[in-house]
Amino acid sequence: MRAAIARLRDGRFTVELDGGERIAVAVTIAADKRSATIDFAGTSPASPGDFNAPTAIVRAAVLYVFRTLVRESIPLNAGCLEPLTIVLPPGSLLNPEYPAAVVAGNVETSQCITDALLAALDACAGSQGTMNNFTFGSARHQYYETVSGGAGAGPGFDGASAVHTHMTNSRLTDPEVLEQRYPVRVRRFAIRRGSGGAGRWRGGDGVVREIEFLEPMQAAILSNRRRVPPFGLHGGGAGTCGRNYVLRADGRSEELAATATVELVAGERFVIETPGGGGYGR
Q: Which residues touch 229 (CB under 8 Å, ≥6 apart)?
């Protein structure tokens, strides 16, 4: 870990969430000591919503990012954090105080922390920046999944398409199993072509996932990057924002916000278009 840190350079970056909150980070490298200070000064105060992230989430994101920079096989344990000093402003989005709500801190804000750190270190452009948390259910059925998107490009590589990026690494239920166990049909699950940001190295594409309900259900989406697109770096283009909407039984298309809850009847469809990753270089 220390050898990898010694090769890095100072950097800083700011990422904005859809709700207007900002995550600011400055990374200062002490090459002689082979250590780094990760300072989140300038990050927004705790949010009245639920996108606040407990400090444990921040530490996990920092550890993840620096571990990805080590090419050797090393044990992943608390010793990896010894050369890292993390500074978190009290009462901020990343160091909230009770009774701040934190349900989206793990699944959403963690993604943006990771993106900010990787950009500050000039490692890669913004990835989809969300887990696209989708839930539906009734008195008889309950289901939860996260949906893949585009990865950010970096110096010398394109971003991957249709993958879970960074702080999520979950597998999706096979359509055959999902349709056997729940009153739904997977109408479409495809790569969202062209949603990755342009650049010398192109960002990965997101996906389109369309679920039809065969009986009345309540569905909810908890997501991000529906207003602020995944950023590009060094002249690379931004990825395309995500989109949530419902196709109603009467033919209407009903747009939904990044976080929304909706009632559906038989024959109606919930569509999630996930963001693409940012491009790198002109």
A: 197, 238, 239, 240, 241, 275, 278
pLDDT for position 167: 82
Q: Check residue 2 and give its pLDDT.
A: 82
Distance, CA of 168 to chain centre: 8
Give the integer Cα–Cα distance in Å for 19 and 51. Answer: 9
Eight-class DSSP state of 156: T
d(C-alpha 147, C-alpha 162), whole Å: 9
From 40, 43, 35, 38, select the one nearest 27 (Cα to Cα).
Answer: 38
Name the strands in the sheet holding 243-247, side by side, starting at the edge strand that comes first in the sequence.
Answer: 184-192, 206-213, 269-273, 243-247, 253-256
CA distance 77 to 67: 10
The mean pLDDT values, 10 residues at a time, for the chain of 282 residues are: 87 98 97 94 97 97 93 85 96 97 96 98 97 97 97 98 89 94 97 98 98 98 98 98 98 97 98 98 95
Angle at 130 between CA 185 and CA 116, to 5 degrees: 165
What pLDDT shows up at residue 126? 98
Side-chain half-sphere CA neighbours of 151 within 13 A: 19
pLDDT the model gives residue 138: 96
Mention every residue, 6+ apart, whose C-beta is less than 8 A from residue 174. none
The SS3 assignment for 144 reads: strand
**Structure tokens that stand for 88 in this block:** 């978190």
Quickly tell me which residue has 């594409």 as its tokens. 205
Contact 271, 134 (CB under 8 A): no
The DSSP letter of residue 200 is S
